[in-house]
């Protein structure tokens, strides 16, 4: 049964080789993500990860490997075990980051489920319910809004701050209901493509008994995109 969930962002800047010189904010994001996935490995040696990509729905097994060459440096990663082929140069970013974090945290393997960003809420929760009984740690890859300020990649939207605060509160208080009730249309308009991945968590929580507690490790908007990192742990 899943007893721990780690939520992390998935920007390429998490990989040191992809940045020329990390600043203080970059190091803070990396440190929070490292703490989150180290905690996940403490709970389970094998992971299942959930992210979003237009290629979804698709599940990528431990034999999958890829490279960050498309981001400027041929940093190779695999999801566990021995790769059966040359690294996939088009492996989606959430899977690449999941593989890289797996290696950093020393997890044995990770199976990555990629959902289409438009996946209905009910389907997200159903996936969580199906995964809940597996003896794995759950890694959820999702960024916050990308329309916060002038540094954002898209024009600022006055609604972004409130949505990020809602995400921050939900993740910091282990509020599965708040994640379940996220509005898909609003999230799409404000750049929260990982909404579908986040809404897998309520399915896990609803399918397990006990109480969930949370630790918010990071929540800020250092480069125009909001990143949240948190760990949820189930107690009997």
Structure report:
The protein has helices at residues 24-43, 93-105, 121-131, 160-172, 176-180, 184-189, 195-198, 200-206, and strands at 4-8, 46-52, 58-60, 65-67, 76-78, 109-115, 137-141, 211-220, 227-235. The strands form two sheets. The protein has a seven-stranded mixed sheet with strand order 3-6-2-7-1-9-8, with helices on both faces. Strands 4-5 form a two-stranded antiparallel ribbon. The protein contains eight helices and nine strands. The protein is an alpha/beta fold and 236 residues long. The protein has one domain (4-235): 3-Layer(aba) Sandwich (Protocatechuate 4,5-dioxygenase, Chain B), CATH 3.40.830. The radius of gyration is 16 Å and the shape is globular. The mean pLDDT is 95.
List keywords for this structure.
7-stranded mixed sheet; 22% strand; Protocatechuate 4,5-dioxygenase, Chain B; 236 residues; globular
Count of discrete structural domains:
1
* Number of distinct helices: 8
Overall average residue pLDDT: 95
- Overall 3D form: globular
CATH fold type = Protocatechuate 4,5-dioxygenase, Chain B
Question: Under the CATH scheme, which architecture would be assigned?
Answer: 3-Layer(aba) Sandwich
Give unreliable regions as ranges.
none
CATH superfamily membership, which one? LigB-like
Task: Tell me the fraction of residues in β-strands, as a range.
Answer: 15-25%
Largest sheet: spatial strand order: 3-6-2-7-1-9-8
Provide the structure class.
Answer: alpha/beta
